[in-house]
Specification:
By secondary structure, the protein is an alpha/beta fold.
Amino acid sequence: MEEENTFWSRLCREGQRPFAVELDSPEGPGAEKFMAGAAELAERGAGLITIADCPVARPRMDASLLACKIQRELGIQAMPHITCRDRNRNAAQALLLGLQAEGVENLLLVTGDPIPAEERQRVKGVYDFVSRSFLAYARELNGSLPRPFHLFAALDLNAPHFPAELERARGKEQAGAEGFFTQPVLTERALENLKLARQTLRGRLAGGIIPLVSQRNALFMDRNIPGISVDPALIALYEGADRERGEELAVEVSAAAARAIRPWIDGYYLMTPFGRTGLMGRIMERIRAEEKL
């Protein structure tokens, strides 16, 4: 690993706009495909690999352990998402100290999705923290660390009442957040909310982009995934598209989203659908090419 936190440094430089790319952790014990995907993403231009912490409260391979594995074995910067849902205060401190020892320096701290109703008799949430208090705790811990963490929070641009979401984001900044990773921008409303966030928040913004690969995929995300809204015109665009055409549209739509958000962001936050790392490489190449024009 390089001594400099290269992702943070580029995020802070005018016009650099580095790529952070999210890759879902495995559901089973094998990490070979995941590691190969992370290596491919880095080769194609990702400056940071991010790993969600058991999204929708379904167990997957631990995001923090995978971040350590990526940095140790591949020499690529990685950032785990860390939820408040699954660990108490002692466990949170132990995890942060372990990440410090492994050289993981960028963290996304989130409250975490609630446990599904059908699982609540078997699985209990912890919630010693919520995201704001977790940020404050991590910032306090930073004072005793040789290389303090850079702390990020989530920003939902599709929140039903965005002024309240923006006020929560300001509270997260006061608690210690240095930047925000946003939900995808797939509507005009989300774009307007991003502009408002840029005017209001001091921290760095990584603008969210998620490729839509089919009409079914677009409909599912719009109807079922918290924090994601898809413009009906985009959903209609995919009608009748096969896989090849769907990926072509994914590149076009993602590039258009990047053009729209570019003036308001410091970096791109790309989310990989269904492990399609090759598609993400095409999208990054297209965005880079358009930035050079």
